[in-house]
Specification:
- Its cofactor is FMN.
- It comes from Acidovorax soli.
- With about 325 residues, the protein is of the alpha/beta class.
- Helix content is about 40%, strand content about 15%.
- It folds into two domains: about 240 residues, TIM Barrel; about 70 residues, Four Helix Bundle (Hemerythrin (Met), subunit A) (Up-down Bundle).
- Strands 1-2-3-4-5-6-7-8 form an eight-stranded parallel β-barrel, surrounded by six helices.
- Helix 7 links the parallel strand 5 and strand 6.
Length: about 325
């Protein structure tokens, strides 16, 4: 199991929160531009909490030399995997000719993978789509995977939806066109020696288990972010371990303590951290009022522990019928 890299969401604060819920799930950074890491932003982009392990660094870029330099830095900072983004359809990424655009240049992706593998000892993996725009030819994604695998990549995380580079916004492309899980299953059948994980629209244990009957792994995106308490079961259900030993209230308090440490060490406002845990009480009585407290900008100058006390008080208030 893994939690998908999500821009503006899976920062180090979000990953610290998710790690309180599951010890074994692989966590990913947001996509980080390789050039940004190299040209002066190394610490800002690569700093993470030791508690986050296992954690992977996702890179964006299309120049093998820059990718290799960024991968080397990532490995030196302690990331356990380097992942190349070949699936993001945003306009900014397209202008840089990387992300999903790279699927049109499989040999360039292969060259980038080889360059990274030559300088790091950790796994180098690729996350990609099943196609570009309205081209739904299976041969397109098959040849992409085959070419990149020849360069030494053995792990592919496949978003089971085409990336539309024209005609849809990235937000619209999260739901359009339809998911085609069968394409990912076909890839695994054709490349049984590769590790193939699936991503896209998976929201329940039953669907995860159905996919694991065909594939090697499942990556969860938005559902993990909006309904994070689901993660508390994953160690037990998917790894045969113990479920999260903390209650929701204990997780919330642990996050308050983290907010206090972050404020003391880096001056991080608690609101930058609290936004990631707004789904913690998803489905429970009082969840709406609780969220309103933690997202109330009028409280942003108060200490995190004081806001925590106000949020706890809302859980005792009956919701109107």
């Amino acid at each position: 199991m893994s939690v998908a890299p999500m821009m503006d969401w899976t920062d180090r604060h979000c990953r610290y929160f998710h790690r309180l819920l599951t010890r074994q799930t692989l966590l990913y950074t947001e996509m980080v531009n390789a050039g940004a890491i190299i040209h002066g932003g190394t610490e800002r982009h690569l700093r993470f909490n030791a508690e986050e392990h296992p954690v992977a660094l996702q890179l964006g870029g299309n120049e093998p030399e820059l990718l290799a330099q960024a991968a080397r830095l990532g490995a030196q900072w302690g990331y356990g995997e380097i992942n190349l983004n070949c699936g993001c359809p945003s306009d900014r990424v397209q202008r840089g000719a990387f992300g999903a655009s790279l699927m049109k240049a499989p040999q360039l992706v292969a060259d980038g993978v080889k360059a990274m593998k030559d300088v790091v000892d950790v796994p180098v993996t690729v996350k990609h789509r099943i196609g570009i725009d309205k081209v739904e030819d299976y041969g397109f994604v098959r040849d992409f995977v085959g070419t990149v695998a020849d360069a030494g990549c053995t792990v592919f995380i496949v978003h089971a939806r085409n990336a539309w580079l024209q005609g849809l916004s990235p937000k619209e492309n999260r739901d359009i066109p339809p998911l085609r899980y069968e394409v990912v299953h076909r890839l695994k059948a054709e490349f049984p020696h590769l590790t193939i994980a699936i991503n896209g629209g998976i929201q329940a244990d039953q669907v995860v288990l159905e996919q694991l009957a065909h594939l090697d792994g499942v990556m969860i995106g938005r559902e993990a972010y909006h309904n994070p308490w689901w993660l508390a079961r994953w160690d037990q259900v998917y790894y045969g371990g113990a479920p999260c030993p903390l209650t929701r209230e204990e997780v919330e308090l642990a996050m308050v303590e983290y907010m206090e440490r972050e404020a003391a060490q880096y001056g991080t406002p608690w609101a930058h951290i609290a936004r990631h845990m707004l789904g913690l009480r998803h489905g429970l009585r009082g969840a709406r009022l609780w969220r309103q407290v933690w997202s109330n900008h009028l409280l942003k100058d108060r200490p995190a522990r004081e806001v925590y006390a106000l949020a706890q008080a809302t859980t005792l208030i009956p919701e109107p019928v």
